[in-house]
Specification:
92 residues, three-stranded antiparallel β-sheet, 3 strands, globular
Length: 92
């Protein structure tokens, strides 16, 4: 379920959230099969023109932040820092 969104209408955010939920579930399943007992911090997906960053909340179970960033207009390191800051300020 999408709790909020902001940005250009490049993507249907409801669909992006549903799809990224499946990515997270798949990765957690594989980690369990491999015996990896750690938490995921971020999942980064790169396509030719964009970065897609999924940040799982360390404090709130079943919550993640999603960012789609144009490679030629953004700074991935800075955006990762900003997502961490947003997560820390998030009140639900």
């Amino acid at each position: 379920m999408l709790l909020g969104g902001h940005g250009p209408d490049r993507y249907n955010l409801e669909l992006a959230v549903a799809g990224n939920s499946e990515v997270i579930k798949s990765k957690l399943k594989v980690m369990k099969m491999l015996g990896i007992n750690e938490k995921i911090e971020n999942i980064l997906i790169t396509i030719c023109s964009e970065f897609h960053l999924i940040r799982l909340s360390a404090n709130k179970t079943h919550l993640f932040l999603y960012l789609s960033l144009l490679k030629n207009k953004g700074n991935l390191a800075l955006e990762r820092y900003k997502l961490s800051d947003i997560e820390n300020q998030l009140m639900i």
